[in-house]
Write a structure and sequence with these properties.
Elements (H helix, E strand, L loop, with lengths): L7 H4 L16 H9 L2 E5 L4 E3 L7 E7 L2 E4 L5 E4 L4 E2 L14 E3 L3 E7 H10 L1 H7 L2 E2 L5 E3 L16 E3 L4 H5 L1 H17 L8 H20 L2 E4 L3 E8 L4 E8 L3 E7 L3 H6 L1 E8 L6 E7 L1 H33 L8 E4 L17 E4 L2 H20 L1 H8 L3 H7 L1 H16 L1 E5 L2 E7 L6 E7 L3 E9 L1 H6 L1 E8 L6 E7 L1 H45 L1
Antiparallel strand pairs: 1-8, 1-18, 2-7, 3-6, 3-8, 4-5, 4-7, 9-10, 11-12, 12-13, 13-14, 14-23, 15-16, 16-17, 19-20, 20-21, 21-22, 23-24, 24-25
């Protein structure tokens, strides 16, 4: 009997993606990269690809064969070659209600949800290509049915909301009433100016503009993975943004104080979290009861999804030991996402400094002093009877001061390396050096602050790392575009979490494989 060798062309991934609407706007290079990041699987006829209760947080592209499953009405749905399975579940994943099986020998490409989120977080062109594009009637033309969240922190949530504008509309009635009364008073007394009624409307318009700007700059959001909040404080002219993973939500409450809010139908949502910085508040929003139910449903789904992932991981491990002869088989693994990305090829080697505008502010005084001494040397020499060259030589001192401040700015850096967020500060000339690092695994939340008009105008601020164990918060001060650094930190923290979870799963897999081997030995001895 000869040895059967599978032909090489059968184990290779396809060279290009099919003409599916989801991939319509991807370039050939982007399509090839997406193929590299997918796993190639196959299953024989009747094999269960997913069981009920599995998380099913994957996107499958059927290459050959057929997948079948029952929908909610009990009818059978099929995926044929070139069809996708799971694209409608990526934005809001939930445990599977029915099994998915191979109706014939089937082969497919698989991308996990986390892989797709990582792709669109790193590659902006890939994000545009996979984002939904609809026509005027709302029909999907290309892309995924719903936009995926970017990888934690640097993207708007799937569902965004702002504080209600109903109070501004309701305030129009008393403003109009006041204008009408002033009009009657001006008509009754000639001493009052005729433009008196417009004073009430002018006051209302001024208040209305401030009100709308404040509401427009306050933004809340939630999706399957997280809750976000971006609040503008008009009194202090500051912006604070927060991000809380959905698995840290402990409870959701609503609050509707005062008769005015009850009449307008607006309320406040209070999300209690396990993070040290406490509650997340969505203040004065419309449909607050519906939003509370959505957040509660997503919170419950997070725990069920985690159970499904663990169960599926254990089952795959047991299937590798040969416990089941009819199980899906991994034919070709995926390329590593970070290795295929030129922008993120150096894992953990992310560094950034304080905003250049901070440097400009620190250099302004010494450079101005040097320029003043150099330009006014003649006048100063005539006043104090000192040679001009001595005064011009004195201008070197502010210049050296400026160089010192420049070097001080360059030596103050922040970074992410080897699973740690690092704050590194070195004084020029080696006078002082300090290094503070925080493990990404100990970071509970990451907030940003922009306090004052200048940080708001020049787009810099603080990134605050809230850590466990009661330790003092780590602050990356005055960095440019703090929301981008917040997003990068969230991505790295999520990568670190997934890596640690994978190590724990591998450890459990080894235990399960040894258990399966021992069980098989017992069965053989009993036969």
């Amino acid at each position: 009997m000869g040895i059967f060798i599978r032909p090489i062309y059968e184990v290779m991934k396809p060279s290009h993606l099919p003409d599916h609407p989801v991939f319509l706007r991807l370039s050939p290079e982007e399509g090839s990269r997406l193929i590299e990041l997918g796993e190639l699987w196959e299953a024989s006829q009747g094999c269960l690809v997913y069981h009920p209760g599995d998380s099913g947080e994957d996107l499958l592209l059927v290459l050959e064969g057929r997948l079948e499953w029952e929908n909610g009405s009990g009818t059978t749905t099929r995926c044929l070659p070139g069809d996708l399975w799971g694209e409608d579940r990526l934005a809001a994943p939930r445990p599977l209600e029915s099994a998915v099986r191979a109706a014939s020998k089937t082969r497919w490409l698989k991308w996990s949800r986390q892989t797709l989120i990582g792709i669109i977080s790193i590659d902006h062109s890939m994000r545009r290509g996979l984002s939904p594009l609809r026509d005027k009637t709302g029909r999907l033309i290309s892309g995924l049915p719903e936009a995926l969240p970017h990888n934690h922190g640097d993207s708007p949530a799937a569902k965004r909301l702002r504080p209600s504008l109903r109070p501004a509309i309701a305030a129009l009635a008393p403003a109009g009433g006041a204008a009408f009364l002033l009009h009657l008073a001006a008509a009754a007394q000639d001493s009052l100016p005729a433009v008196m009624p417009f004073a009430a409307l002018a006051a209302y318009m001024g208040w209305f503009i401030v009100f709308v700007i404040k509401r427009w700059m306050t933004d809340y959001g939630y999706d399957a993975d997280s809750l976000t909040s971006r609040v503008f404080d008009w009194a202090n002219f500051s912006i604070e943004s927060r991000h809380v993973p959905m698995d840290r939500v402990q409870g959701v409450a609503v609050e509707q104080t005062g008769l005015f809010r009850r009449i307008l139908g607006i309320g406040t949502i209070i999300v209690k979290t396990s993070a040290l910085d406490g509650e997340l508040v969505f203040r004065d929003v419309d449909r607050f009861k519906v939003i509370r139910r959505d957040i509660q449903s997503l919170t419950e789904s997070v725990s069920l999804r985690a159970l499904g992932r663990d169960r599926e991981s254990i089952r795959r491990s047991l299937e590798k030991t040969g416990v089941s002869s009819n199980a899906p088989k991994l034919i070709e693994s995926a390329e590593d996402l970070l290795r295929t990305s030129s922008r993120d090829s150096k894992r953990g080697d992310l560094r950034f400094r304080k905003s250049p505008m901070v440097l400009v502010g620190r250099l302004l005084l010494p450079i101005s002093a040097a320029a003043a001494l150099a330009a006014g040397a003649g006048i100063a020499a005539s006043l104090v009877a000192i040679p001009v060259y001595w005064i011009r030589l004195a201008a070197v001192l502010p210049f050296l001061w400026a160089l010192y401040r420049l070097e001080d700015w360059r030596n103050d850096s922040f970074g992410i390396t080897d699973g740690y967020a690092v704050d590194l500060y070195r004084k020029p000339l080696g006078m002082k050096e300090s290094r503070r690092q925080v493990a990404l695994s100990s970071i509970q939340n990451i907030r940003t602050e922009q306090n004052g008009f200048l940080p708001f105008l020049f787009r810099y601020g603080n990134v605050i790392l809230v850590t466990t164990g009661g330790a003092a918060d780590t602050v990356f001060e005055n960095v440019a575009r703090p929301w981008r650094i917040q997003g990068a930190l969230f991505r790295r923290r999520e990568d670190d979490r997934l890596r640690r979870e994978e190590m724990e799963r591998d450890s459990r897999k080894d235990d399960m494989m040894r258990f399966a081997e021992a069980l098989d030995q017992i069965h053989r001895t009993e036969v």
